[in-house]
Design brief:
Ubiquitin-like (UB roll); 5-stranded mixed beta sheet; about 5% helix; globular; disordered N terminus
Length: about 850
């Protein structure tokens, strides 16, 4: 059983009592001379220098001189993890040794360099208002430096030298599903699907292969490779190099899928506060003031500034529009405010930020008509300027196609933000003619804070009849067949066996035309309106028309999301029509109500109803929720009626385990039944073996916590350390600090963990190792004595046979040690001579895995060298 909280508290109290007894005080050692101004710190109980702990006691040191792995913090932010050397200064104090050049690398502005810099610099002497402190128990050194002495870094910036490329590893992510469909009067049909994403990491390189295998009744087995890619960071250029199958960006030209090589700037390598466009805020403070910036009633930025002018250039807005309210709170409590107009469009950049992409390869559409792969070269670039302006341009040269684009994005203050670009293209069409035309694009965004409105005309594009974008130019040649163009589409009124794997094939239809329907115009508009406190009214409209008689396609939706008491509800109306399909109108509503008061295992009642002019009425109601620790089990049960399929009922559930996930479902209808099973997960092959885990995402953390089997990982559903001492945590944000921690409640008295949490900063796609120093064994309070019955010397250090320091001897020869096993030998040392050390053998631990107190207490004789040899 695990140690109770009472036993754990008693253990900690005992450890504190021993430390107090060791470090001295008039209440415990009234006969010892104690200087009132001198204090000792218990942190040197685990001094690992190999020197006598008594020496540390005599000097009053937290740590002995030497080099140790420490984390270096600057104003509370970790900036480095490396070996820190500690030296004894002229005042006989042990302090960190930091050279002036190293301090400057951290962005600290020091006085001008002297001809011969000292090997170790005392920060306080270089900058009188700066301070250095350290905590041995946390293995961290803290530097406190006023902002005026710092090269200011953007918020969220993580120094490159903290980025971790991870370990060499093989990775595999899999998803396997099996489905059986049964229809009245027909044989059942089985469908199997296996999706694989595999590869390896070697240094900064990442190789990935994506493939699927499918098998269903009457159609055999099919294997398809979806893509191969090899990529890596180019940190010096804030870029990423990709080879193989990938996608281009859509900030200048439309995004396309290709096979080739691409070098592009990587916005994720920027500090998060620099990734999105934001205006520079300038103001003046009369005193030492606090500046708060609010957007949409949320405080998004706060900073302390000195008297005089201030400038904020690392703001990270919560959305692309919404005016900014700036409050300057003076030291005397007075407040003065002003509003900074803010709107942006997606292709706007901050002042000084470059964005570029160079791509060369073959166009790959990926559709069923993907039999034409023109080679191409594409270059795009944009640059943020100081006057809220972002010019951008692009060039594309391909087989039978050439295009160039130029545009500009501009913030208009209280009038919003706008961008305008023009693209010209020349296309060699399949019939032998040459077409040339232009296309213009207009984007606009504006927020009306006082009305709670956000209006965004995401785009209007108009193209002349002879303009083709690159995808249209490739499609025009691919669809040209014997003097006409062939089009594919899905018939939304097609009838068939719903749920059969080839259902999409049953819906597929083909149309032929003597003209190619290249795009004419496209509208995309969005409007949201806040109602009451949290309710929201929204409207979206999309429309696209084609030249040469091609039918237009349109869709629009209006809806309302609201909350009343504990109810969440929504209403919507939707209209859509395709180029070759009938118009569909749908109206629907949904409502969700929490049941019970348990926040750890929530349950909800849900209901949904809709009506469509094509599929008729549909109504469904049910229960959903989660259970078990970490809510790792989720479930859903529902029943309903559909105008086309009749009555139906369904149950499903999924479980998140340490080595993967499993799901199952069953649906019963008037004339059909469907059963489904699925498993998914991942595996990482590394130097320590093979570790199984849940489905892998792009970036992963390999937890290394030997002897911590069964201990969970904080904020990770169902993940625990396996028998080999490893666990997989997936989904970490690249280039950002990610905290990984063991669950404290899972750590029993028989497990010693030096560090229960750590921080990692992975690069994209890395498998980063997060190491935890763990030692399994018992906690023991030893009453130690020598052969003549005298207690062990006060301050003597206790070591395991591998040299790891286990503790220190307190008053009356007592030592509290952890991570101990039956029969283990410990060395006690209070000097360098042979007669100043002896050996303890721990025998007689209680048979129970843990005593009622959480630790054992033993009286043990410490044997000298001669006694051990005689034995």
């Amino acid at each position: 059983m695990k140690q109770s909280s009472i036993a754990r508290t008693d253990l900690r109290s005992r450890a504190r009592w021993l430390a107090l007894g060791l470090l001295g005080g008039s209440a415990i050692f009234p006969s010892l001379p104690v200087q009132a101004e001198e204090k000792f710190n218990a942190s040197f109980l685990r001094a690992g220098s190999g020197q006598s702990a008594l020496e540390a006691v005599q000097h009053g040191d937290d740590i002995l001189p030497g080099t140790y792995p420490f984390s270096l913090y600057l104003n509370g932010e970790e900036v480095e993890r490396a070996g820190i050397t500690f030296v004894r200064n002229a005042a006989e104090e042990v302090v960190p040794c930091l050279t002036p050049s190293r301090l400057r690398e951290l962005g600290i502005r020091l006085p001008n360099e002297t001809p011969q810099e000292p090997e170790c610099a005392a920060l306080e002497t270089l900058l009188p208002d700066a301070r250095t402190s350290f905590d041995v128990t946390q293995q961290r050194v803290d530097l406190s430096v006023p902002q005026i002495h710092l090269d200011r870094l953007p918020r969220g910036a993580v120094p490159h030298w903290l980025w971790d490329e991870g370990v060499t590893a093989g990775v595999l992510d899999y998803s396997l599903t099996a489905t059986r469909n049964e229809y009245d009067g027909l044989p059942h049909q089985d469908y199997y699907y296996l999706g694989l994403n595999s590869g390896f990491n070697l240094g900064a390189w990442r190789y990935r292969n994506r493939a699927v295998a499918r098998r269903y009744t009457g159609n055999g087995s099919h294997w398809q490779t979806l893509g191969n890619s090899l990529e890596r960071d180019v940190i010096g250029w804030r870029s990423r190099l990709q080879l193989g199958d990938a996608y281009s960006r859509n900030d200048v030209f439309d995004s396309i899928r290709f096979r080739g090589v691409q070098l592009s700037s990587d916005d994720e390598q920027l500090a998060f506060s620099m990734q999105q466009y934001s205006p520079v805020i300038r103001g003046v403070a009369s005193t030492n003031a606090r500046v708060e910036v609010t957007q949409n009633n949320l405080v998004i930025y706060s900073i302390n500034v000195a008297p005089g002018p201030f400038e904020i250039n690392d703001l990270s807005p919560s959305s692309l529009s919404g005016d900014l309210l700036v409050n300057v709170i003076e030291a005397d409590g007075s407040v003065h405010s002003f509003t900074q107009a803010y709107s942006a469009v997606p292709n706007m950049l901050r002042d000084g930020i470059w964005r570029y992409q160079l791509t060369a390869g073959e166009f790959r559409n990926g559709g069923s008509l993907d039999d034409y792969h023109p080679s191409f070269l594409q270059l795009t670039a944009s640059r943020g300027l100081s006057n809220d302006t972002t010019p951008y341009a692009g060039l594309l040269i391909a087989e039978h196609y050439r295009a160039a684009s130029v545009g500009i994005g501009k913030g208009l203050g209280q009038w919003g933000a706008v961008s305008l670009d023009v693209t010209g293209a020349i296309t060699d069409i399949a019939a032998g003619d040459q077409a040339s035309g232009i296309s213009s694009r207009f984007l606009y965004s504006k927020s009306l804070n006082s009305w709670g409105s956000e209006f965004r005309l995401l785009g209007y594009r108009y193209s002349t009849s002879r303009y083709y974008d690159f995808a249209d130019a490739a499609a025009e040649r691919a669809q040209w067949q014997q003097g006409h163009y062939q089009y594919e589409y899905d018939d939304n009124q097609a009838q068939g066996l719903i749920g059969v794997p080839d259902w999409s094939d049953q819906r597929r239809r083909y149309a032929q035309s003597g003209s190619f329907y290249n795009k004419r115009s496209q509208w995309q508009m969005s409007l949201t309106q806040q109602v009451w406190n949290s309710d929201q009214l929204y409207a979206n409209w999309n429309a696209q028309s084609y030249w040469h008689g091609g039918h237009s396609q349109r869709s629009w939706q209006v809806g309302y999301n609201g909350r009343a008491a504990a109810y969440n509800y929504s209403l919507y109306y939707q209209y859509s029509t395709g180029r070759f399909t009938s118009s569909e109108r749908t109206i629907g509503m949904s409502i969700s109500l929490p049941l019970g008061s348990s926040s750890s295992s929530p349950m909800y009642a849900n209901a949904y109803a809709s009506h469509s002019n094509i599929s008729g009425n549909s109504i469904q109601s049910g229960l959903s929720g989660s259970a078990l620790s970490d809510n790792r089990l989720s479930y859903n049960a529902s029943a309903g009626h559909n105008g086309g399929g009749g009555n139906s009922a369904a149950v499903s559930g999924s479980y998140q385990g340490a080595v993967g996930s499993a799901n199952a479902g069953y649906t019963y209808g008037n004339h059909y039944r469907q059963t489904s099973l699925g498993v998914s997960g991942g595996a990482v092959v590394h130097s320590g073996g093979v570790t199984l885990g849940q489905a892998l995402q792009t970036t992963m953390v390999l937890v290394d916590a030997k002897e911590a089997q069964g201990v969970g990982i904080e904020n990770q559903q169902g993940i625990t350390v396996n028998r080999s001492g490893y666990a997989l945590v997936s989904g970490s944000a690249p280039y950002r600090r990610s905290r990984v921690a063991l669950k404290a409640e899972d750590i029993g008295a028989n497990l010693e963990v030096t560090n229960t949490s750590t921080e990692v900063v992975p690069t994209r796609g890395a498998v980063v190792r997060a190491y935890f120093d763990t030692h399994a064994g018992r906690s023991v309070l030893i009453d130690g004595h020598l052969a003549d019955g005298t207690p062990l010397p006060l301050g003597a250090a206790v070591y395991a046979m591998d040299g790891r320091e286990q503790g220190i001897v307190g008053p009356d020869g007592q030592a509290f040690v952890t991570g101990i096993e039956e029969g283990q030998r410990l060395t006690v040392r209070w000097g360098e001579a042979n007669h100043q050390q002896c050996e303890l053998r721990v025998v007689g631990l209680s048979p129970d895995s843990e005593s009622s107190l959480g630790y054992d207490r033993l009286a043990v004789q410490c044997q000298a060298d001669s006694e051990i040899r005689h034995e």
